[in-house]
Please model this.
Amino acid sequence: MSQKREKEEKIFEAIGDLPEDMVADAANYWLSEKKPWYIEKWLLAGKGFACAVCAALVIFWVVPWAYKNYGGGNQMKTEQLLSEKKESGSVSNEESEFDCAADENIIGEIYLWSEAGNTLENADTEKNVDRKKASGEKSKQEKDSTRKDKKIKEGKTVRLNVKSVPDGNLSGGNISVLPFRVGKKDDGITYTIRPEILKCSVFSVTGSVQDRKGDAKAVDCMGGDRIELNTLEQCEPGWERNPVPEWDGKKIIIVDIVHFTGEKEGEKYDFGRIVIGKKGGNYYGVYQKRNG
Amino acid sequence: MDDEKIIGLLLKRDEEGIVQMQKKYNKYCGAVARRIVDNYEDAEECVNDTWFRAWNSIPPHQPENLAGYLAKIARNLAMSCYKKQHRKKRGGDNVTMALDELSDCVSDGKRVEERMEQRELTNAIAVFLRGKDELKRNIFIQRYFYLVEVKEIAAHFQMKENTVKSILYRLRKELGKYLQKEGIYI
Model:
């Protein structure tokens, strides 16, 4: 045996005589009772399952809930909320959608609308709908395309659509307007829209008579005309009596109250008012008809 | 049963002590032996001899740490077995085999000086290892006492293999220097 080998064996044997406590300490993990492998597997699988459940809860419940309650407002969301309400029966089909062909006798209703590019298109389409009423599916599809406007149900708070439009007075600047539609085309009523404290002036009227632009204290328009209210600055809350008691505690700041009146063949109508409020970047409105 | 009770039974020459010792440390001693000898049966024989040696040595000896004591017995027995196996492989002739058989009749052949030297060497290594942190000490002992593979040590301590290798390399170098400093020349 070579000398080197002998030396190696000497050290090896010397290591074999190391103190017992030192030897035992190094092997503690051998001596400690290990859990059976299947228990470890089950524990691991259980942890994985718990994580998956948590992730699913966050993705499918927490995120939609947070988005629904704290997300920004848009037309899609308003429509979704309305459709949910419709499914639950709180809003009937007839009231939630504007169908000019079916609602011949409705006057003085106020609708939310959006999509500036659709303004004229809608008017044309309405004519087409009348013309092609009996021509089957094609006309039905076109009629669907007119269903952009949502009627504001009395007493219900709705999130208002906000449109960004170029301001004629400021070169290149944009302003936010709240688009509405009042009445129905050819209902024969001349409507008057009057913001109470001029925080929401009438920015534009688009419709059958003549398009008008520029902030105005009060304007007359015809049924089916589209009006845009300039949101301007929001009002400091200074109402002696809250016009919308149901907003108490919801931190909605009231911006203005817009009155809708009308006249047809000498007969005067008061269609009520819309109270417009703001919370964060969202505008809310509630339609209140005059009692009696 | 805890170690103190087992040692108590062995000191009283109660055979229940062997039963309990086997029950508790059979796997452990088997693992120590199997890392040194390849053959499963030889390893089993080493383990059985371990109980026998422990039974014969307690009393008078009273180990402070039963697990370490048994591991040392199992390791030494397995090393003897390993040497025998390798001698057979190298020679394998009748004379070598007869001499090997006769080696059972004589002592381990070490002179008193050699025994003293080995004890001194063991003490020096022990002092050196006690000066190291627990992790390094355990890695060294697992590798050179229990002969655990580097890969397995790395997995146990959740380290990279190369890290374990480099720790062992440094420890070897430091041990060499330490032994020289202590005047132990092998």
Observations:
- The radius of gyration of chain B is 19 Å.
- Chain B has a mean pLDDT of 80.
- The longest helix of chain B spans residues 66-90.
- The CA atoms of residues 36 and 78 of chain B lie 6 Å apart.
